Amino acid sequence: MTAVTYDTSKVYFIGAGPGDCELITLKGYRILSTADIVIYAGSLINHELLNYCKKDANCYDSAKLTLEEIIQLMQQGVSQGKLVVRLQTGDLSLYGSIREQSEELAKLNIGFVSVPGVSSFLGAAAQLGVEYTVPEVSQSLIITRMEGRTPMPANESLEDFAAHKTSMAIFLSVQNIASVVANLHNNGKGYPMDTPVAVIYKATWPDEQKVEGTLADIASKVQKAEITKTALILVGRFLGEEYHYSKLYDAEFSHEYRKA
To answer: Which segments of the chain belong to CATH 3.40.1010.10?
Structure first.
């Protein structure tokens, strides 16, 4: 395979995947294994990913750093002609705080390259063996979170989204599971209490846990399992027994590549 050289005048943001070390992309792995400086989200990523780094790579845990300190490390590395990687969990486009880092880099005239990763909501679906978009059951997926220390924009509350009754993946909210349930039901205006729910703790990690139930009992089950962080809440009829086959492979359905 032809060796690839990377632009050391830029910072490489890499989505590390949901936890399983083999779920980093091939491109992400190649860049990570070449990096001179790695700034990783230590409270979130699987630390075994650092085994892919060069022995002489300098690795820094960003859990202990401020934004200013992270940017300073990046600037120093780029100024020294070193390959700098920012390694973050899942995919960069979801709850990754990439915007603030890229804006600070822009002030220093430092460019960046984003390498996407596998989000935990995809890893969770794979571990459950489910599809968010089941024909005639749900064809949409809402990805959101409950309001906490970070406020939600207007019209983006769980109650607002629950009115749609479509598939939903809720991040960063399991510590408030009872409130999540109440908001999703919304006094009967949202999901019915018999709606299937699954809570996945550390999807694809070796210590993954799955708790399944309905809105009626999921809170007590999660509390009994003592899950308080690093978990996704999946809600919707896509988790239930109802399903319909797609038209794509239906022998009676014609399309561009096949006649009925």
So the answer is: 10-115
